[in-house]
Amino acid sequence: KMPQKRECLVLLVLSWLSSLRAQDENRVLFSLGTFQNVSVPVNGTVQAVVSRVPADVSFLTLQFHTHHRNVTLSYTLIPLYGFSVTVADAGLLSNLTPRQTTVSWFLKTPDGSSAAGIGVILPYTSTDPVPGACNQEFPLEIDPNIYLQYNLFETMINFAPANIGYGRGAIPPACDVNMGSSTRWRLVYEVYQYFLPEGDLSEQSLISSLEKVANVKNVQDNSRKVVSLTSHDRTQFSFSSLPGQGVIFSVIVRDPVLNTSASYIPVHTYACSFNSTLDGCSDLGRVSTKVFFTVIGLAGLFVCFVGHRFFKCELFCMGFGFTAFVFFVVITITTPLEYNLRLALTALMGVVGGVAMVMSWWRFGSVMACVLVVGLILGFLISSIVVFTPLGDLPVFHNDVVFWVVFACIMVFVPLFFIRWPREGNIITCGVVGAYSVVLAVNAYTYTSLSFITLDVLKRLLNHNFSRAFISVPLQDIDFIMITVWVVLGVSGIVVQLYREKSRPFFPPSPYAMWKQERERRKTNVLDPSHHKLSLSAQILGRIRQLTQRAEPAGETTPLLL
To answer: Following CA atoms 171, 172, 173, 176 in sequence, which dihedral angle do they give, to the nearest 10 degrees?
Structure first.
């Protein structure tokens, strides 16, 4: 019996130890300012704990980030409305009581699945502004989170106003009683962007990037400031969506009187869904898009080097691009057709436009009219490049009237150059536009920011709210490579064509005009054998008569007598 009792005692001890281990596994100890990896088990809850909080710390923020899964961060073991938040970049702010040294929060997933991420707890003193303390929009009483939404065109962020700092146990200053310099209205806000490496959707890249923008100093050192605003401005901003490009948004609130600052909870997006089987992050490159832009790139390469030599082919390509762009805008605005069908109809109408442009030159022979259309295409590209630069984010260009007037002026000014130097202008257009078509073809297979030169203009045409969006993006390694390719191809194509065409006529003659001249020459030149030939219609009618009429007998056929 003694061995049996001993075995039972051992089993009880092991069971007790395993329960303690399970509790330890679901309880994570944090150190202030240090990142901690956290794993949430299936149907489990993790308690995040920080202890030995210094007496000069007035409030703490806990932020927890996952790659794409939503997590629920709560003040209580059972999440309650107004005491929890459920997002992929979650954060809570806890005010401390006078003698409090330990704070805890609770982490779980809303659907009971497992999740992994990183968290960090940041301390702030009584002089630091309190992010989200004047919240009147979101469920939390004090909400330091940045709320993000995105669609195909724009990514929008929104956050609650902050309040000036206060000590432990003190009554928070009123938010909207007056607007003096001793209230929260003196606070200023700064919005920052941090771009992840292009085309990198990995979790490791996100985690290392979030560590660079977790607190105020890191945000200032590593991120790009987009805009500054006062407490009188709206706390809602719009940015151009960049599907497949990771972006982290951060907001810093500053107290200019006390020279202190605090950070809201950073939020990230890829402007695509990891959970969707249709149009997800793993399926950004549609087959139809790749086929379409591959053909565009090959045609652009041809135009870049021999477009002027084969003038009819160049006109077809330029007419195709001009008509396809206009038709895509019209059909997208007016119809709810699926993307692949719209792309197919766009290609069909582009072919019609290209043929129409070639036929107009063939029939009327107006080189200048065709070259002016080509000049408008170059003007459109140059205008797009101008607004793609940081100039496009100037406040004045958020006004649609100003934007489109400036855009149209640049676009129309470029063809004026073609009136004086039509051949040189046409060759330059072939080189610049043809080389950019190659860049668009490469973008169908690997991400590059240069595609947004024209895509941002297209978005602004299709979405009336896009005018408020900030559109500038930083250039990364792949972008500099593609700029080099663009410049080398464009310059090479221009030089080759200028050299080959220097001894040739400026433009080939119109085939219809040549045919008319040849016909008049034959009518007036009686020595030309073709002058005595029947017309084509007369020859056809004569041949038909020969085939349909029976031959008449020639009369008596008596043989001759010798």
So the answer is: -130
CA distances from 484 to 295, 386, 397, 439 (A): 22, 18, 29, 10
Residue 442's CB: how many other CB atoms inside 10 A? 20
Distance CA 132, CA 145 (A): 7
| 71-74 sheet: strands from edge to edge | 27-30, 46-50, 103-108, 71-74, 84-87
HEC assignment per residue over 463-505 = CHHHHHEECCCCCCHHHHHHHHHHHHHHHHHHHHHHHHHCCCC
Express each pLDDT in 94-127 by its tens digit: 999 998 999 999 999 998 889 999 999 999 999 9
513 by DSSP, 3-state: which? helix
In whole angstroms, what is the distance from residue 129 CA to residue 165 CA? Answer: 4
State the Cα–Cα distance between residues 386 and 369, nearest whole angstrom. Answer: 26
Phi and psi of 442, rounded to 5°? -65, -35
Q: Which DSSP string corresponds to 208-250? A: HHHTTSSSHHHHHHHSEEEEEEETTS-SEEEEE--TT--EEEE
d(CA 370, CA 361): 7
**Tokens 């590593």 belong to residue:** 222
CB atoms within 10 A of CB 382: 14
What residue ranges define each of the domains in the chain, with the CATH number in brackets? 3-269 (2.60.40.10), 287-501 (no CATH)
Q: Which amino acid is at 274?
A: F
The two structure tokens encoding residue 213: 């923008």
Q: Which of 92, 88, 97, 138 is nearest to 117 (CA)?
A: 88
Vertex 516: Cα angle to 512 and 518 (nearest 5): 115
Q: What is the pLDDT of residue 276?
A: 63
Which stretches does DSSP call E strand in 42-166?
A: 46-50, 57-66, 71-74, 84-87, 89-95, 103-108, 115-125, 146-150, 154-159
Tell me how crowded residue 1 is: count the other CB atoms within 10 A of its CB: 5
pLDDT digits (tens, 9 = 90+) for 336-355: 888 888 889 999 999 999 99
Q: What is the helix (H) or strand (E) element at residue 255, kind and residue range?
A: strand 247-255
Residue keyed to tokens 């790139």: 297
| Nearest to 143, CA basis, from 198, 91, 211, 207 | 91
Residue 536: CB atoms within 10 A of its CB come to: 8
